[in-house]
Amino acid sequence: MITSMTGFARGEATGPWGSLTCELRSVNHRFLESQFRLPEELRGCESELRQALGRQVKRGKVDCSVHLRAAEGAARALDIDEAALTRLVTRLNEVMRTLPEGHTVDALDVLRWPGVIREAQVDTEGLRVALHELFAATARDLVAARTREGERLRDLIGERCTALEALVAQVRARLPEVHARVRNRLAERLAELQGQVDKDRVEQEIVMLLQRLDVAEELDRLTGHIDEVRRIIASGEPAGRRLDFLMQEFNREANTLSSKSQDLDTTRLAVDMKVLIEQMREQVQNVE
What we know:
alpha+beta
């Protein structure tokens, strides 16, 4: 089983403090990188949330957004700071004595003065507990989403492996014909020579040429890499870095196969291999 680094999850919780929403988005990244956007009341929770995320996710760039919305229609107690109000009224009376007659002060303006009405205290501890519970549930949903995407990637990579295996079999099946064609072409050129030639020396040169053109070893390594990819995507171990390394090995063997090829059909098959390998490489970039 493999896990994708791409996923999204959203959770919501409600309480006396209102509505709390948590959204987690993740994309591919070489390591685990997280960014948090929290309400002012919950900024102190960031370190704990970051640690909790690290226990669930090993790689990927994860953005966490938390929004707090106060309960609609909730009655707010008018808790007036008597000392602040007294100081304000005293100053207002002083100001009023210096103004022309007819000037008045609106009582609502007095209440709006900063500090006159104390804001109702939010149950911070209850809010923190709710955030941790909501974040844990949302993180589990994110892991589940990444797992589902990983299953899709596993199937796609498996299909590419099957197609690549078929191309390897086609190239392998052509080897006898390719070798025979090389021998015949050399024999025809030798027949055109008028002078005497050393047949043993010619045979040695043909053998050496066929060895340079032989791609059986590259085909064997490609087959081995395909088997290793299948083993990795079927296991429960972190697969991203291993698969990324194997994609490099796949490319190396396909390039060698293409450079050695003296047969047009084999060259075309090598190009088809590179296309499949590139498709797998793009998919592997999202594997955790």
